[in-house]
Amino acid sequence: MNILELIKKFPTQEACIKHFEKVRWGDEVKCAYCKGENTYPNEKELRHHCNDCRKSFSVTVGTIFHHTHIELQKWFLIMSLMLNAKKGASSYQIARDLGMRQATVWSIMQRVRKAMKTNDKELLSGIIEMDETYVGGKPRKTGKKDDNDKGNPRGRGTKKECVVGMVERGGKVKATSVQKAQIKSYGLKQLVRDNIDMDNSLLITDEYKGYMTMNKIINHAQVNHQKEYVNSYDIHTNTIESFWALLKRGIMGNFHKVSKKYLDNYINEFTYRYNNRDNKNTFNDLLLRMV
């Protein structure tokens, strides 16, 4: 849903609330406190009253919108801008576009990112590509000894934050930040056990030694990047590399710097957009996640 469509569909707070009620409850309003259906509306205050527990409630009770002082239309606009920006949109840019405080927009965006978190119980299956990348800006040349990345090493020699990802060919992606100790053989195997249907999948990785014994738990193939990027058996990790390109270009180009504390929230945003790239009902699905 683009901005023009959203403004036409939700011109007022009442229109936003009515739509959220439809998404959350459908045709039967349920009490946000006791889940009872013996309710009646208070149209003037855009609320409902429950005859069972005798409480008054609105559709935002029990959601991330509860107690917000920001109109739902602005929440919806921020959500739409985040969903439509393939490489992300910064809180500074959205704040300028909507005439809001940057700190307020940043706080709202972090809540939306938490709602975007992938369901970890869903296992990936089929042909799965697995790889790790490292997120962080280049060291600044200050003339002083650089204690972050001495000599600006790349890859596994860096002190940047490590992110491990797994993607189905033509399907969904899962990614999470990990400690350096977790990219040893035992840590990578545990990630595979937690996220992949090992009986019905082929795992494809690069030649990193942490993957060398992966064939003990799953069908495993490797591509040697020192010789080739795709071999004659269509063994490659180009799909996960493409996702890394979106993530890193988004972080470097739009957000510039992401702290370790909030890194997983940004990963949630990029994985959610990728996994819903063909979903025409993404906006309503995201609203449901906020309940």
Number of strands: 8
* Spatial shape: elongated
SSE topology string: HHEEEHHHEEEHEEHHH
Domain count, please report it. 2
Give the terminus-to-terminus CA distance: 20 Å
Strand order of the largest sheet: 6-5-4-7-8
Number of helices: 9
pLDDT averaged over residues: 90
Q: Which range best describes the helical content: under 10%, 10-25%, 25-40%, 40-55%, 55-70% or over 70%? A: 25-40%
Which structural class fits the helix and strand makeup?
A: alpha/beta
Outline the structure in words.
- The chain is of the alpha/beta class and 291 residues long.
- It folds into 2 domains: 3-115 and 282-289, no CATH class; 124-138 and 153-258, Nucleotidyltransferase, domain 5 (2-Layer Sandwich), CATH 3.30.420.10.
- 36% of the residues lie in helices and 17% in strands.
- It is built from 9 helices and 8 strands.
- It has helices at residues 3-9, 13-25, 72-84, 91-98, 102-115, 185-195, 238-255, 263-275, 282-289, and strands at residues 39-42, 47-50, 56-57, 124-135, 161-168, 173-178, 196-205, 219-222.
- It has a 5-stranded mixed beta sheet with strand order 6-5-4-7-8, with helices on both faces. A 3-stranded antiparallel beta sheet has the order 1-2-3, with no helix packed on it.
- Helix 3 packs across helix 5 (102-115), helix 4 crosses helix 5 (102-115) and helix 7 (238-255) crosses helix 8 (263-275).
- The protein is elongated and about 70 Å long.
- 27% of the residues are buried.
